[in-house]
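Problem statement: downstream parser choked on a complex file, so we are re-checking the raw output for the flavin-adenine dinucleotide run. The parser issue turned out to be on our end (a line-ending mismatch), but while we're here, posting the original submission so the record is complete.
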Amino acid sequence: MVSKVTRSPGADSSGIYRRPRLVLKVKRFEDIPILLGKNKSYPTPIRIVGADYSQTRCVGGDGGTTVDTGGLDKILEFGETSVRAQAGVRVGTLVRALAERGLELPLTPEIGQISLGAVAVTTLPQASYGAGMAQLSSCVTEIKLITPQGKQMTVTERDRDLMRVLRSSFGLLGVVHEVELRVRPLTPVKIDYQVLTLKEFSGRFTSIVQAPGALRLHISPFTDKITVERRTLDETASVSRSGIWQVRNSVMRNVLPAFGSTVGSVLAAPGLRNAMLSGVQRALRATLDRAARGVVLYAHEWMRDMPNEAWKARHTYSLWAFPQADYPKMLAEYFNFCKSYYKEHRYRSNVVSGASRLHQDRGSLFSVSYTGPMFTLEPSSSGDSGWDDFLIDFNDFASALGGTPTFNQTRALQVEHVTKSFGERAKLFRALRQRTDPLNRLRNGYFAYLLG
Ligand SMILES: Cc1cc2nc3c(=O)[nH]c(=O)nc-3n(C[C@H](O)[C@H](O)[C@H](O)COP(=O)(O)OP(=O)(O)OC[C@H]3O[C@@H](n4cnc5c(N)ncnc54)[C@H](O)[C@@H]3O)c2cc1C
């Protein structure tokens, strides 16, 4: 029925502590109720793991049973407007299979490893094109799950409130084994870049957010540069194969972190290190300048595959979202924060910070754009020494400025940040979780601390 993977893995080299007593790979969803029912053989908490790519302890083993859904890997049915698949299918596998049929998801993330179970129940904000669709979970139209009591349940978008809660449930309300997602015809995306100073960005902010398209920002506080990447859907465009996108991806995602990591570990003197990092950022600038005239491609082409073992991905980041209206002001504060942090602690993050514009999306309870349009801010790093401490201070900075965190992509989160951002929504979720799982079969220490 299930295969035992190992008895007791502990913290991995990404530093995320897990320590379950058992790790099992489930091959048939029919076996999940049996696992849930046998407390002695399968100790509490039962935690589900998809690709294990979260930046926090949201999977968290805590001496219990970790259930790997990797064996639930079948795409079950392709339709013209929807696709049905098991929870262990990776989004990259699905997106490529859809592209072969001339289809795509309404939103396409940049990494292919994410499992469809995580797509359904976690917070995955993406640069969005319009209201109501700013998180991957909003693409999910139906969820099949096993409740903590071992009962099968099917929830569709017709059950709007229940769907909203499940899309933010992180495996605390049940084990998802199958999902249906919305799809649409493959549409070319035109991509343009504009490199601005913070002053220019602030001055043009209204027109930047009013023009159509999805926005991704690449932010360098120390060189006072914000690269605005605009993705516009264009059915009439013909797709160019300039190769610029691959170059951009490679520089942005691979060269920078790898270089940062080498520099960080080899050169101790911060002055020298930062001079070298600026050199890399100049190289990045040149690449983007070449791409400024525009590239047209399909969304699945920007997806990249990370290593299957999550801890081997050296690129790390943390994510908060901030109200759109105050974003330029917030960025000015962020630039000042980074500079004074560096002055005091001689630490600066060695990779450009990313950001996405999010339209309002109330499709899930812990959506970071639940209350209105937002922009994320994603400080990034190769995980060099000083990064973890930086994030602790950055979290307090972000929370004080009205930021909203996530449970799977915001590192070093504290309960006061959760209470401040989610307030009544967190209380509602807690009450529901206590009623649906009174024996805490699915709850780990991470969520006990943050959500009760
Ligand atoms: C280097 C790196 C780059 C990244 N880049 C991006 C990016 O470009 N875009 C983006 O959107 N995200 C990105 N992420 C974030 C990552 O995709 C998310 O954190 C996502 O949740 C990971 O999916 P997963 O399958 O690994 O989930 P896991 O970490 O395995 O699980 C996440 C949560 O979902 C629960 N869960 C998983 N499956 C189920 C199920 N079947 N039933 C019930 N509960 C379940 C788990 O218990 C856990 O609480 C990146 C992460 C890393 C480390």
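For whoever reads this later: Residues 7-15, 254-284 have pLDDT under 50 and may be disordered.
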